[in-house]
Design the sequence.
Protein backbone atom coordinates (compact mmCIF):
# COMPACT_ATOMS: atom_id res chain seq x y z
CA UNK A 1 0.00 0.00 0.00
CA UNK A 2 1.75 3.14 -1.24
CA UNK A 3 -0.93 5.69 -0.41
CA UNK A 4 -1.71 6.26 -4.08
CA UNK A 5 -4.91 4.61 -5.32
CA UNK A 6 -5.85 4.22 -8.96
CA UNK A 7 -9.21 3.19 -10.37
CA UNK A 8 -10.18 1.29 -12.34
CA UNK A 9 -7.40 -1.30 -12.31
CA UNK A 10 -8.52 -2.64 -15.68
CA UNK A 11 -10.41 -0.91 -18.47
CA UNK A 12 -11.45 -2.09 -21.92
CA UNK A 13 -12.85 0.51 -24.27
CA UNK A 14 -13.74 0.96 -27.90
CA UNK A 15 -12.18 3.63 -30.05
CA UNK A 16 -15.29 5.82 -29.87
CA UNK A 17 -15.79 5.61 -26.10
CA UNK A 18 -15.10 8.25 -23.49
CA UNK A 19 -13.73 7.08 -20.16
CA UNK A 20 -11.68 8.46 -17.28
CA UNK A 21 -8.92 7.15 -15.05
CA UNK A 22 -8.83 8.34 -11.47
CA UNK A 23 -5.94 8.73 -9.06
CA UNK A 24 -6.10 9.68 -5.40
CA UNK A 25 -3.25 10.23 -2.96
CA UNK A 26 -3.42 10.48 0.81
CA UNK A 27 0.20 11.41 1.42
CA UNK A 28 -0.04 15.19 1.54
CA UNK A 29 2.09 15.56 -1.58
CA UNK A 30 1.62 18.54 -3.84
CA UNK A 31 2.86 17.13 -7.15
CA UNK A 32 1.14 14.44 -9.19
CA UNK A 33 2.09 12.70 -12.41
CA UNK A 34 0.75 10.48 -15.18
CA UNK A 35 3.12 7.98 -16.80
CA UNK A 36 2.49 5.55 -19.64
CA UNK A 37 4.15 2.15 -19.56
CA UNK A 38 4.06 0.10 -22.75
CA UNK A 39 5.61 -3.28 -23.35
CA UNK A 40 9.29 -3.10 -24.28
CA UNK A 41 9.39 0.71 -24.08
CA UNK A 42 10.74 3.03 -21.39
CA UNK A 43 8.40 4.77 -19.01
CA UNK A 44 6.91 7.83 -20.69
CA UNK A 45 6.11 10.89 -18.61
CA UNK A 46 2.82 12.34 -19.83
CA UNK A 47 1.78 15.11 -17.44
CA UNK A 48 3.00 16.75 -14.25
CA UNK A 49 0.89 18.84 -11.91
CA UNK A 50 2.43 20.91 -9.16
CA UNK A 51 0.12 22.69 -6.73
CA UNK A 52 -2.75 21.87 -9.09
CA UNK A 53 -1.16 23.62 -12.05
CA UNK A 54 0.06 21.68 -15.05
CA UNK A 55 3.80 22.23 -15.33
CA UNK A 56 4.65 19.56 -17.87
CA UNK A 57 2.95 18.21 -20.96
CA UNK A 58 5.25 16.01 -22.98
CA UNK A 59 3.64 16.34 -26.40
CA UNK A 60 0.78 14.07 -25.47
CA UNK A 61 -2.03 13.78 -28.06
CA UNK A 62 -5.13 15.78 -27.27
CA UNK A 63 -7.19 12.59 -26.96
CA UNK A 64 -5.65 12.44 -23.47
CA UNK A 65 -6.92 15.22 -21.22
CA UNK A 66 -5.72 15.55 -17.62
CA UNK A 67 -7.57 17.23 -14.79
CA UNK A 68 -6.33 18.06 -11.30
CA UNK A 69 -9.19 19.53 -9.24
CA UNK A 70 -7.17 19.56 -6.00
CA UNK A 71 -3.86 18.34 -4.67
CA UNK A 72 -5.23 14.91 -3.76
CA UNK A 73 -6.95 13.96 -7.02
CA UNK A 74 -5.83 13.55 -10.59
CA UNK A 75 -7.86 12.36 -13.56
CA UNK A 76 -6.97 11.30 -17.08
CA UNK A 77 -9.90 11.71 -19.47
CA UNK A 78 -9.77 9.47 -22.52
CA UNK A 79 -11.65 9.90 -25.79
CA UNK A 80 -11.37 8.49 -29.30
CA UNK A 81 -8.30 6.46 -28.38
CA UNK A 82 -6.30 4.27 -30.75
CA UNK A 83 -5.27 0.63 -30.23
CA UNK A 84 -1.65 1.78 -29.78
CA UNK A 85 -2.79 3.64 -26.65
CA UNK A 86 -3.26 0.29 -24.92
CA UNK A 87 -0.82 0.33 -21.99
CA UNK A 88 -0.45 0.50 -18.23
CA UNK A 89 -1.12 4.05 -17.03
CA UNK A 90 0.65 4.86 -13.79
CA UNK A 91 -0.15 7.71 -11.46
CA UNK A 92 2.41 8.99 -8.99
CA UNK A 93 2.79 11.71 -6.41
CA UNK A 94 5.85 13.27 -4.83
CA UNK A 95 6.91 15.49 -1.97
CA UNK A 96 9.44 18.24 -2.56
CA UNK A 97 12.30 15.79 -1.97
CA UNK A 98 11.42 14.23 -5.28
CA UNK A 99 10.97 10.50 -4.87
CA UNK A 100 7.86 9.23 -6.57
CA UNK A 101 5.17 7.15 -4.96
CA UNK A 102 3.28 5.15 -7.57
CA UNK A 103 -0.17 3.67 -7.70
CA UNK A 104 -0.65 0.13 -8.97
CA UNK A 105 -1.69 1.34 -12.39
CA UNK A 106 -4.70 1.13 -14.67
CA UNK A 107 -4.37 -1.45 -17.44
CA UNK A 108 -6.07 0.01 -20.53
CA UNK A 109 -7.03 -2.01 -23.60
CA UNK A 110 -8.37 -0.19 -26.63
CA UNK A 111 -10.23 -2.39 -29.11
CA UNK B 1 20.44 16.40 -21.28
CA UNK B 2 19.91 13.88 -18.51
CA UNK B 3 19.87 10.17 -19.20
CA UNK B 4 20.12 6.81 -17.45
CA UNK B 5 21.56 3.66 -18.98
CA UNK B 6 20.88 0.26 -17.43
CA UNK B 7 22.26 -3.13 -18.33
CA UNK B 8 19.92 -4.93 -20.65
CA UNK B 9 18.04 -7.90 -19.37
CA UNK B 10 16.60 -10.25 -18.83
CA UNK B 11 18.79 -11.47 -16.00
CA UNK B 12 18.20 -14.99 -14.72
CA UNK B 13 19.84 -16.21 -11.50
CA UNK B 14 19.55 -19.13 -9.14
CA UNK B 15 18.39 -18.53 -5.59
CA UNK B 16 21.19 -17.30 -3.27
CA UNK B 17 23.28 -16.01 -6.19
CA UNK B 18 24.94 -12.60 -6.12
CA UNK B 19 23.17 -9.86 -8.09
CA UNK B 20 24.58 -6.82 -9.83
CA UNK B 21 22.52 -4.59 -12.11
CA UNK B 22 24.61 -1.85 -13.67
CA UNK B 23 23.38 1.72 -13.96
CA UNK B 24 25.25 4.73 -15.30
CA UNK B 25 23.98 8.24 -15.78
CA UNK B 26 24.58 11.49 -17.58
CA UNK B 27 23.41 14.63 -15.86
CA UNK B 28 23.91 18.36 -15.82
CA UNK B 29 24.32 19.31 -12.18
CA UNK B 30 24.17 17.08 -9.13
CA UNK B 31 21.43 14.48 -9.34
CA UNK B 32 19.72 12.40 -6.72
CA UNK B 33 19.69 8.74 -7.70
CA UNK B 34 17.02 6.10 -7.15
CA UNK B 35 16.27 2.44 -7.70
CA UNK B 36 12.64 1.45 -8.17
CA UNK B 37 11.23 -2.08 -8.34
CA UNK B 38 8.09 -3.25 -10.12
CA UNK B 39 6.66 -6.62 -9.10
CA UNK B 40 4.33 -8.40 -11.54
CA UNK B 41 0.96 -6.68 -11.84
CA UNK B 42 1.93 -3.75 -9.64
CA UNK B 43 3.18 -0.18 -9.93
CA UNK B 44 6.72 0.94 -9.20
CA UNK B 45 7.98 1.08 -5.62
CA UNK B 46 10.95 3.03 -4.35
CA UNK B 47 13.64 0.53 -3.34
CA UNK B 48 16.46 2.84 -2.27
CA UNK B 49 17.96 6.24 -2.96
CA UNK B 50 21.11 8.33 -2.56
CA UNK B 51 21.25 12.10 -2.72
CA UNK B 52 24.96 12.90 -2.87
CA UNK B 53 28.28 11.42 -3.89
CA UNK B 54 29.51 8.42 -1.85
CA UNK B 55 26.11 7.95 -0.21
CA UNK B 56 25.01 4.33 0.02
CA UNK B 57 21.33 3.53 -0.22
CA UNK B 58 20.13 0.22 1.20
CA UNK B 59 16.87 -1.62 1.70
CA UNK B 60 15.72 -5.26 1.88
CA UNK B 61 19.30 -6.48 1.42
CA UNK B 62 19.84 -4.39 -1.71
CA UNK B 63 22.56 -1.74 -1.83
CA UNK B 64 23.76 0.90 -4.27
CA UNK B 65 26.55 3.47 -3.87
CA UNK B 66 26.51 6.86 -5.60
CA UNK B 67 29.83 7.01 -7.49
CA UNK B 68 30.37 10.45 -8.93
CA UNK B 69 33.76 9.60 -10.44
CA UNK B 70 32.29 6.81 -12.56
CA UNK B 71 28.76 8.33 -12.79
CA UNK B 72 27.34 5.02 -11.62
CA UNK B 73 24.77 3.67 -9.18
CA UNK B 74 24.97 -0.11 -9.51
CA UNK B 75 22.43 -2.22 -7.62
CA UNK B 76 23.74 -5.22 -5.66
CA UNK B 77 22.39 -7.96 -3.46
CA UNK B 78 24.45 -10.68 -1.89
CA UNK B 79 21.88 -13.48 -1.99
CA UNK B 80 18.76 -13.18 -4.12
CA UNK B 81 15.46 -14.90 -3.44
CA UNK B 82 12.67 -16.05 -5.74
CA UNK B 83 10.57 -13.19 -4.35
CA UNK B 84 13.08 -10.69 -5.79
CA UNK B 85 11.90 -11.53 -9.31
CA UNK B 86 10.74 -8.19 -10.71
CA UNK B 87 11.72 -5.35 -13.03
CA UNK B 88 14.27 -2.91 -11.62
CA UNK B 89 14.49 0.72 -12.75
CA UNK B 90 17.33 3.14 -12.13
CA UNK B 91 16.37 6.83 -12.10
CA UNK B 92 17.79 10.26 -11.49
CA UNK B 93 16.38 13.62 -10.55
CA UNK B 94 17.91 17.05 -10.89
CA UNK B 95 16.57 19.77 -8.65
CA UNK B 96 15.86 22.59 -11.09
CA UNK B 97 13.25 25.21 -10.44
CA UNK B 98 9.87 23.59 -10.29
CA UNK B 99 10.97 20.49 -12.21
CA UNK B 100 10.45 17.38 -10.15
CA UNK B 101 10.19 14.67 -12.73
CA UNK B 102 12.53 11.70 -12.69
CA UNK B 103 14.45 10.38 -15.66
CA UNK B 104 14.16 6.58 -15.76
CA UNK B 105 16.28 3.88 -17.31
CA UNK B 106 14.61 1.27 -19.49
CA UNK B 107 14.36 -1.32 -16.70
CA UNK B 108 16.01 -4.69 -16.13
CA UNK B 109 13.93 -7.83 -15.77
CA UNK B 110 15.25 -10.15 -13.04
CA UNK B 111 14.08 -13.75 -12.71
CA UNK B 112 15.28 -15.83 -9.76
CA UNK B 113 14.87 -19.58 -10.06
CA UNK B 114 14.48 -21.88 -7.04
Sequence:
Amino acid sequence: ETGVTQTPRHLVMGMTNKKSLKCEQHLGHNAMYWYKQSAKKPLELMFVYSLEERVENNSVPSRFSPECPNSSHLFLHLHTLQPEDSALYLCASSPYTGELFFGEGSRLTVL
Amino acid sequence: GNSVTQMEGPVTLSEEAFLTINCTYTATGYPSLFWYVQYPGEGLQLLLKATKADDKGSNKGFEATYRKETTSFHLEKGSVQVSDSAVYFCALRILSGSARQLTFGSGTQLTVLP
